[in-house]
Amino acid sequence: MTIILTPTDTIEVSATPDGNTLWLDAADLTRVTGYQLKPEGFCLDEICVPVPHGREAEFVRDGSDGTSVNLATFWRYLDAPVIADDEGATWSIGEPPTDRSMRLDTLEAADVTLPDVSGELHSLSDFRGRKVLLAAWASW
Amino acid sequence: MDELGDESFTVVAVALDSEPGAPDPWIEAASPTYPVLIDRTHQVADRYGIVNVPTAIWIDESGKIVRPAEVAGAYEAFRHVDPETRAVPEEHLAHSKQVRSAYLDAIRDWVARGSDSEHVLSAADARDRQPAADPAVAEAHARFRLGQHLEASGNREAARIEFEAASRLHPESWAIWRQAADKLENGIAAGPAFSARLAALGDKHYYPPPEIAGMPEAPARS
Questions:
Q1: Residue B164 domain-assigned?
Q2: Does the interface predicted TM-score (ipTM) exceed 0.90?
Q3: Contacts B48 to A, Cβ<8 Å
């Protein structure tokens, strides 16, 4: 199993890391990033990024066990960070800049789900209907 | 802010703390009535563009940001310590209190008057104050998360390399730097390396003064 650290989660997938590439099931791409592989390309909600012409084999391949996508190459194509540890066992990805700009532009407060000191999970969206002072502090 | 006792408002505190248990004594001492969440990977800092603490974001009832990340009522009085007496001069201590009190007043005004408060930014102003999407900052946070994962798995040397890279990519972030820095016995990253990094700021701020109506002018540098 390969561990993928996303901006909000830690997800284990069955993937094939090989140097700079990371092939995984198209369904796992959606689980990890939200992007869905469609005939139009890689789509997040209504917005699709076409697979670059002539480079299809770097991004998508059909095998006996379904369609695989190369998360690492796709993510670099979006100009987004994708970093692996020395063994290729753990990968860390960041938010693509275009997605981030669009998110910032909406002024919508990004939802986060985090535990309190007793381990109980809370989501920021649980507090809709109230004004929230989201206050960051630290022990250090 | 417990004293506000207003059903239409809550604080949601987030501890940017990777080390398990590190924030617990602080939470116990404060015994807050509002939720205190623990953010080991600093995901809130990444999402909201937070570079230091205390920082706060104002979010309205519909989930819209009406004030993006800004210093939450703190002033860098400690940077004005008199080298001979080791004391913070009176005018800087007084300014510290004024900044805190002006910030709390602004929150009270928002809680009481909602979108009519002068402190609620227009959508255009709020957008202007959002931190821009910066690929280096996004990579810094991805490296920080990888470092945190490596450290939690006991691979401290590989973690250190990621933390150093993260700080180089996002030098404005005190949160990334201090989280990874060596701590004093009290758990605070305030040793000689912190002093040196602070001195290297020169005329730049550790806590940029919040641009809030009613905020008093800082005393001249001594």
A1: yes
A2: yes
A3: 110, 134, 136
